Amino acid sequence: MSKPVNPDSEARRPAPDARKERWRKHRQARRAEFVDAAIRALGKHGPDVGMDDIAAEAGVTKPVLYRHFTDKADLYLAVGHRGTELLFQRLVPALNTETAPRPRIKQSLTAFFSVIDEFPNVYRFITGRHLPAESDVVHEDKEMIAAALATLLGDYMRAFNMDSGGAEPWAHGIVGLVQNTADWWLDRQSMSREAVVDYLTQIIWAAIDGILRDAGATVDPDAPFELPGEAHLHAVPEPAETERETTRSSGGASA
Amino acid sequence: MSKPVNPDSEARRPAPDARKERWRKHRQARRAEFVDAAIRALGKHGPDVGMDDIAAEAGVTKPVLYRHFTDKADLYLAVGHRGTELLFQRLVPALNTETAPRPRIKQSLTAFFSVIDEFPNVYRFITGRHLPAESDVVHEDKEMIAAALATLLGDYMRAFNMDSGGAEPWAHGIVGLVQNTADWWLDRQSMSREAVVDYLTQIIWAAIDGILRDAGATVDPDAPFELPGEAHLHAVPEPAETERETTRSSGGASA
DNA sequence: GAGTATCTGTTACTTGAGGTAACGGTTACT
DNA sequence: AGTAACCGTTACCTCAAGTAACAGATACTC
């Protein structure tokens, strides 16, 4: 801000000084480290940890934390992104594998359940009511999954010359169906993981099959079914540990 | 605490003084009044209202509020109960009407959607991430609806000599399916209420029908289907505006 | 009617967690 | 050598939740 830049300087902006660049990777690593600490602290003190506790868990004091996260919400958002990353790493490949419908459903469910089974605390924290509204990452995630599902369903339906208007509500419905059942299962653990997954596979396929049937189509759930130009949920879309602007520039030069 | 009671006095505890009794109804009314104010204030200032604002909205100051609610969480819990009451008033009759399966599904969905359509702000607040975890009423509500659904499904399934193990996960699944779709619809409003309800009716019946079909049974969705000793979700189970203990007795005389 | 239990309400305070200011030290680029 | 970015600290500010302490009404009990 101190050196006045001439108007056309925007063209050659890269690296006026390497000292800034040098730290980029380091900062990301540090953020990740704090996210780990936050998760550990969350496990220790429960979901109402203070920033002091998190900082202590990371072996530093509060202001250090605030150099990397603008906010408690920002930190929790990063925790959320960590969860998203974990989930999508396993879910995306499962969803995108082009096999027969039913195994595809089942392997996607297995992916999902394996993640929440492995990190139940993180999952509960992220989906639970403990984070501030700004850190809500679940909504985005669900939107993303639902969007992928919607195009998938829509394509199938159009392939059968059906009206595809139901694709979107149904996609959101299926996402909710899975999540709510997962929450319930995680709470109760009243049956094995395989059992829930099987029950869910059954109901989801039953639903899809029923809808196809309503339109006069029948599909063998275990026969490979290829679609021209299949919809893909491309890798994890948010860079997960990307740092938000942390410096508090007091009012960025309007006009 | 000042007058020492003799040991056996617990037997004849009712009404030593009518002055206590006299106010009971009044307190309930007052609480309800504050709940109204809270909802109004929520509408005005958004979901991060302060207790001062709520008090002001009710025409009083904070301490008055705290005489009726132990806590912000307590107040929000009462707001939640109000919502539950609103919902169950319409949902319970719809669910319990014994008609053919499909119209029954549809009228239940219509009931649900009409409520959230009529009170979107309340709905969003209650289901959203703004209340403290202690005020979560949605979880209970969903459990209750799912439980009713589970017995219903279970009874049907047993009537067909099917294994009823799926009833519970499916019940929770359907609840989640509806809620998530409702959230999506409320956000986007990209189709009419009737349309979502129809799509949901279709997928839910498709799912149930498919499951029955897997077991070799077929049911006409529009033919009345009576079941011996049908499961009922009995009226709204929580007294909605019941007051929690508000007096802060400083440490109840241990030993 | 005197006494009092329970409400009505107020202003002024305490508390605690989130967040910040201001300082000093270290590394490695220019 | 100079400096731009980091490392880290202690001590503070802020603001909303929640509390103390006080004073006036109403309507029951004796």
SSE layout and pairing:
The structure is a homodimer of 255-residue chains.
Chain A: H1 18-21, H2 24-45, H3 51-57, H4 62-68, H5 72-96, H6 101-118, H7 120-127, H8 138-159, H9 167-188, H10 193-214
The structure holds a DNA duplex (30 and 30 nucleotides).
Pfam family, one (chains A, B): TetR_N
Biased composition (Basic and acidic residues) (chains A, B): 9-20, 233-247
Keywords (chains A, B): DNA-binding
Descriptive account of the structure:
2 copies of one chain form a homodimer. Chain A is mainly alpha-helical and 255 residues long. Chain A folds into 2 domains: 25-69, Arc Repressor Mutant, subunit A (Orthogonal Bundle), CATH 1.10.10; 81-214, Tetracycline Repressor, domain 2. Helix content of chain A is 62%, strand content 0%. Chain A is built from 10 helices and no strands. Chain A has helices at 18-21, 24-45, 51-57, 62-68, 72-96, 101-118, 120-127, 138-159, 167-188, 193-214. In chain A, helix 2 (24-45) packs across helix 3, helix 5 (72-96) runs antiparallel to helix 6 and helix 8 crosses helix 9. Chain A starts with 17 loop residues before the first helix and ends in a 41-residue tail after the last helix. The model of chain A is unreliable at 1-15 and 235-255 (pLDDT under 50). At the A-B interface, helix 9 and helix 10 of A face helix 9 and helix 10 of B. Chain B binds a DNA duplex (30 and 30 nucleotides) through residues 17-20, 22-23, 26-27, 50-52, 60-64, 66-67, 71-72, 248.
